[in-house]
Task: structure prediction
Amino acid sequence: MSGIFVVLEERDGRVSRPSWEAVAAAQELAKKTGQAVTAVVLAANTEPLAAEASAKAVSKVLRIEHALLTPYTSDGFTLALEQLFRAQAPDYVVFPHTYQVRDYAPALAARMGQVLIGDVTGIGDGPVFVRQLMQGRLSGEYRSAGKGTCFVSVQSGAFRVEQADRESATSETFAPTIDASQIRTKPGAPFRGSAQTVDLGSAPYIVSVGRGIKEADNLPLVQDLASALGAELAASRPICDSGWLPIERQVGSSGQTVAPKLYLAVGISGAIQHLVGMKGSQCIVAINKDPEAPIFEVADYGIVGDLFEVVPALTEAVKAAKQ
Result:
């Protein structure tokens, strides 16, 4: 068997959003190669995940079931996926670029005698896989030149969930051979951030603020606009470095990567480190008094003006439209 496999990750009992982005990437790859996309789910009981996957985005679902796959361990996942891929011999395997995938996928690729092309942001003809270098200043194109399965992980926010075509999938179960003695690590509690941590990657609307706000006392001006839009408040690195907003609200190469339906950049010049984290947004609106600000190069709509005049007027317009 050949084709494209995409490995889905579970989060809180459901398929995670980064997994659907990986499906969108796999389908983009399928357009380049003319191959079918198969989803792979792993757990002691995969029925809920398989049902979700089969109803939404792929033509086939492979269910890897074993008691030692729940809870997650890198040993268990590596062993199970290696057995599946050796048996099925897919041409490509696509992963979401998550902490869990980074834990086991390099070892899996090494056991298969392959490399992992990680953090991919685009797929071109060939196919070639695009990765950003030097914090987004450069882009490199990578092609799998060897034989065997090509392993790829895709950057969060680089492929839109809405791009994942909906199909009705068939299902098949695969039972790996795993012994308890092969699980060398004892799983701990899943990583959890602080109670205040915000998952900007799941936010459909984001209002982000930069140095143009001048001082922390002016932040409520932008918060009012975010509240009127029902959006999350985010920031560029200088705002978080100054302690005006918590680091969990930072967007960029050293913060979160986001791809909301609307990204409204207020007083953000558009340094490359920030653009890396938000340029996958569906609609980008920029407010900046500098007409030469780099943010306007990626913006769908730009407002050249003083944010202290534009933002209050925009907030009032949004509130009036809701009445």
